[in-house]
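can u do me a favor
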């Protein structure tokens, strides 16, 4: 008897339920890190500053369900962003699947280990700090290989 293939291999991103969509998130929290974009070139730069609501140990939002009311410009990853947003990390499951690529072997859905994103060093854990008043983002740029 053959096991059914996992949902991310049989469904397009458009066909996924909200629950399936949420399961794709590996918990890296790179989307919670502030980025700067050069308006002329479109190039973006990653900082080591993150949203004040990010739990730095768990790499999860402390107010996930209310994040848009607490941080009006908090970006929700949508199908359109998954296809087009250059600021999403190369390891983002949404971006990978939107571009026809498989999930990486360390992804929690494949590894079965929820913390695999930490043990592989993919997450922001240990790399970022919370935003503070008066912080100058340009002074906090990171050179993050394979972002």
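np, heres the sequence
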């Amino acid at each position: 008897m053959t096991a059914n293939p996992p949902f991310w291999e049989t469904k397009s991103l458009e066909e996924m339920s909200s629950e399936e969509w949420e399961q794709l998130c590996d918990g890296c929290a790179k989307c919670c890190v502030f980025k700067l974009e050069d308006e002329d070139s479109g190039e973006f730069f990653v900082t080591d500053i993150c949203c004040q609501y990010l739990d730095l140990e768990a790499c999860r939002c402390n107010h996930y369900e209310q994040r848009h009311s607490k941080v009006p410009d908090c970006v929700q990853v949508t199908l359109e962003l998954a296809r087009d947003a250059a600021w999403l990390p190369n390891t983002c499951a949404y971006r990978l699947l939107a571009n026809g690529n498989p999930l990486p072997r360390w992804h929690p859905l494949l590894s079965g280990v929820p913390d695999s994103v930490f043990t592989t060093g993919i997450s922001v854990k240990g790399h970022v700090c919370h935003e503070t008043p008066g912080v100058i983002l340009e002074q906090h740029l990171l050179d993050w290989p394979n972002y």
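The longest helix spans residues 18-24. hope that helps!!
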